[in-house]
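Friendly challenge for the regulars: who can give me the structure tokens for this chain first? No prize, just bragging rights.
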Amino acid sequence: MNTDNDLEKLLQNLPFFIQQYLHQHPYKNELIEIVLDLGRRPEARFSHGPEYLSQKIISWQDLDYITQRISKFSSENRAGIERTLHRISCIRNRQFLINGLTCRVGRAVFGTISVIRDLLESDKSILILGRPGVGKTTIIREIGRVLADEMEKRVIIIDTSNEIAGDSDIPHFGIGRARRMQVSQTEFQHQVMIEAVENHMPQVIIIDEIGTDLEVLAARTIAEKGVKLVGTTHGNCLENLIKNPSLAELIGGIKYVTLSDEEAKRRGTQKSILERKAYPTFELVIEINNSNSWTIHEDVAHSVDLFLRNNSGKEQIRQILLPEKVQIKCQNYYPYSTFLMKSIKNSNQNLIPSERIWPEINEFNSKYSAQLSSKNLIIYSYSISNNFIKEAMSKVNIRFTLTTDIKKASLIIGLKKHLINNLRLKKLAQQKNIPIYSLNQLSIYQFMKLIQTFS
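First reply, four minutes later:
Bragging rights claimed.
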């Protein structure tokens, strides 16, 4: 994969003391964004984590220096740098003065979609799911280039915030021969989507961040006209989309159906069940777990039906092991509640999809939680908020108490990356014979897995 990020064009618009530090930084090519808040030290966020850039705090003069050298901010508080993909977002105070900037590095990554190249050759509409910052915009930019340049399709990109093709009337070369239609205001995106179909005869339309009911309706209208869609939206997995009332229409929509007594008995279900309303607007869904691992649902209608029936199926995982090597494998797919109960009952079985991060727990095995209900845990939390622990523990019937006195605790729970550096805490825990439990990340699912060790 080749990357073009025009990083120098971003750095030359920053104050000199920040430029100097970043020019010498060994990981500057892994830079994600720079955060500049009034009265605070400047901070850079890399793929491996954040770090401060200077002991000097940001002043009004520093912010003015940057804002005078870039384009004007839109009604969305976003600006850009001419002929680049970088995005500058501002935070304003109550007097509407800028007191904070987020400078996000924009990159055109050529070859990033090699893992799904075969899927682009189908006539299916593709929806890309992922949490903010995972790289969805970078992916659809490269999809647009490949479809236009290499597959010679008539491609139009609906560029709402100029993130896909840059902040200029001349699109960035990262989109190739694809055409770009700009959107004056976010609320008009659905109108521009329809206009593109009616006026410019596209074979493919690319839309970033579908989020409103009108945009969902416009996408469905475009699909019914026979135009292929490539879109993105926020979410970790297909289940998130099913449970989102505004976005569920993208995968067919959900409705309640009342069955007769005989039919409910035949199916072994309740009389009121959920079913898919219509054929999905997007026939293929790609979940971006991280930059090197993608989950593919090649038949979205079938996947949604399995989830609503609480049945297991197969899902496809595609991983980039080396720059030129792609691994494709299939494994069992479980609707979330079924998956959780199976993983608790069979903790030695590998039921967890690789690199999958589950955002919440909706159900918990009632039989298992009953085994713990008689215990009273006294928890000392280290580097984890008490609200997070209360939220997680509220999902199971376990008596617990949070304490700030480590000597009274029956166990210590914290994030591994913080616990590993606190030798004093570990020494005190050994002296008092208090067990320490660590989490790799702040995830309710990981917390639930940890509770298993208490039984």
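The two ends are 48 Å apart (CA to CA). The domain at 366-454 is CATH 3.40.50 (Rossmann fold). Your move, everyone else.
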